[in-house]
Amino acid sequence: MRQPLFDFVVRWGARGALLGLAGCVDAYLPDIINAPNRYLVVDGFINGNGVTRIKLSRTENVAATAAPPVEKGAKLFIVDNTGQRYALTEKTSGNYQSDSLLLAASRQYQLRITTADNATYQSDATVLKVTPPIDKLGFRVASNQVQLVLSTHDASAQSRYYSWSLVETWQFNAGLESTLEYYPKLNGPNHSLMDTRTTPIYTCWRTEQPTTIAQTTTSQLSQDAITDYVVRSFSDRAERVKVRYSVLVSQYTETPEEFAYRELLRKNTEAVGTVNDPLPVQLTGNVHRLDNAAEPVLGFVGAHTVQAQRLFINKADLPAHAPTYYDTPYTTCGESYLYFCDDQGTCDVAGVIKLFASPDYVPLDYTTVPRAGISSASADCADCRRRGTTTKPSFW
Question: What's the whole-model pTM score?
Answer without folding.
Answer: 0.87
